[in-house]
TrEMBL record:
Name of this protein: Oligopeptide transporter 1
Gene: OPT1
A single Gene Ontology CC term: membrane
Family: Belongs to the oligopeptide OPT transporter family.
Organism listed in the record: Colletotrichum sidae
Chain segments annotated as transmembrane: 69-88
Subcellular location: Membrane
PANTHER family named in the record: ISP4 LIKE PROTEIN
Protein origin, superkingdom: Eukaryota
Gene Ontology MF terms in the entry: oligopeptide transmembrane transporter activity
Length: 205
């Protein structure tokens, strides 16, 4: 297992470098565009936006009618809730049959925050896979879970990355030529009123 993980890390490092170099070479104009699209690096843009807003915290994060004071205050609230839950768990081990100490609020809050921005279409498949693996198979088929869950998880992860690699270069234009998917119910055209995932944009007209 150690040798396989080491080999995978080395191979992945080389592959990531090749992918990055190819995308930077073929998508340079979009990467330099301050607006950009899916090639622009959402996480990096998010860090940049966060840095800008925090530099203007005095004006942005106030508690006046135009301020967003709850954003910095939520850091304090988020840090306090696990402490409160820990104190509760010392007095009540279970509440309605649930073990209080097993409720890890930082993990809950972190994953809940993923639903507020970026691409959220993957969340359903993540939740469904997690319920199937960690709830159904773990409780109903513990022998299978102990023997095969790790390798199945690795297979799903590897398969998803292989498909992402193929789509990036064969479809999404990572190699320079983009091949758009046909428009149908599962891939509608975005408009000023509706995104491709059928969520409204909040704009009229």
């Amino acid at each position: 297992m150690f040798l396989l993980q080491t080999w995978g890390s080395l191979f992945g490092t080389a592959l990531n470098y090749v992918v990055m170099d190819t995308i930077v070479a073929n998508r340079r104009d979009i990467l330099l565009d301050p607006i950009g699209n899916q090639w622009s690096g959402r996480k990096i843009q998010s860090l940049n936006t966060t840095a800008v807003t925090w530099s203007l915290a005095k004006y942005v994060y106030g508690f006046d009618k135009d301020g967003h004071g709850w954003i910095p205050l939520s850091i304090v609230i988020g840090a306090a809730i696990p402490v409160v839950l820990w104190l509760v768990s010392r007095k009540y081990e279970t509440i309605y049959g649930w073990e209080v100490r097993k409720l890890v609020t930082p993990v809950v809050f972190h994953n809940a925050s993923d639903t507020t921005s970026g691409t959220t279409s993957v969340i359903w498949s993540q939740v469904a896979t997690g319920l199937w693996s960690q709830w159904y198979m773990r409780l109903r088929h513990p022998a299978w879970f102990g023997k095969y869950n790790y390798i199945v998880g690795g297979g799903l992860d590897a398969g998803a990355k292989v498909m992402m690699f193929i789509l990036t270069f064969a479809v999404s234009g990572g190699s320079g030529k983009e091949v758009p998917f046909p428009t149908w119910w599962g891939n509608p055209t975005s408009s000023s009123k509706q995104y491709a995932d059928y969520c409204g944009t909040g704009q009229e007209g």
